[in-house]
Amino acid sequence: MKIVIFFFGITVAFIRPACALTPGDLSRVTLEQHPGLQLSHDLVFRDENGQQFRFGNSASRAGAAQGWHCIVGDQHAIAHLADEIGFRYAYDPETKQYAHPSGVIVLTLEGKISRYIFGATFDARELRDALVAAREGESTSTLSKLFLVCYHYNPITGKYGALIMSIVRIAGIVTLVVITGFVALMVGRDRRARRALYETSPSQDGSAVRPYE
Hints:
Elements: E1 4-6, H1 12-15, H2 64-67, H3 75-85, E2 90-92, E3 97-99, E4 103-107, E5 113-118, H4 124-135, H5 142-150, E6 153-154, E7 159-160, H6 162-199
Antiparallel strand pairs: 1-4, 2-3, 4-5, 6-7
């Protein structure tokens, strides 16, 4: 049983810049088919010619070819796997590319999602900590789950989804109300202080000054 890291890449050119660490940083990190995932029989380490396929044969980092492997499969198998782990993507006919979030998904030994690491490059320490957590069977924290629920970005339209925008709008309204109330409170306190000051300060003829009447 081994910990699995899922990184969905469209082409080798896309994956190469994302590998900001070498296998030696993590005492050999290997992407392999997890026995308990019930994947398609076609999802194996083979290229279109039936030859074993490993990413990194042309990479400049030492040991990359032995430490990183690419899993290939047919469209049905890939779509099923992506759906199971919550990875969403869509084809953009205008750019003729697949729009998708960037990051890796770390699974525990039982095949449960342990961590989401977002971004196009990954810090070795952060990934190492994620692997340690996955080895201990720790799942994504409640805060991370809330972030995943709220964070819904459409890379094709370049806009955030309805949920996150609603949260942003509500937060903006609450902030505006709090600021307005604070300003009104300060102005009212200042007016009362000035009124009390003028009321207790007599004028030259001996009468109290009442500027607000």
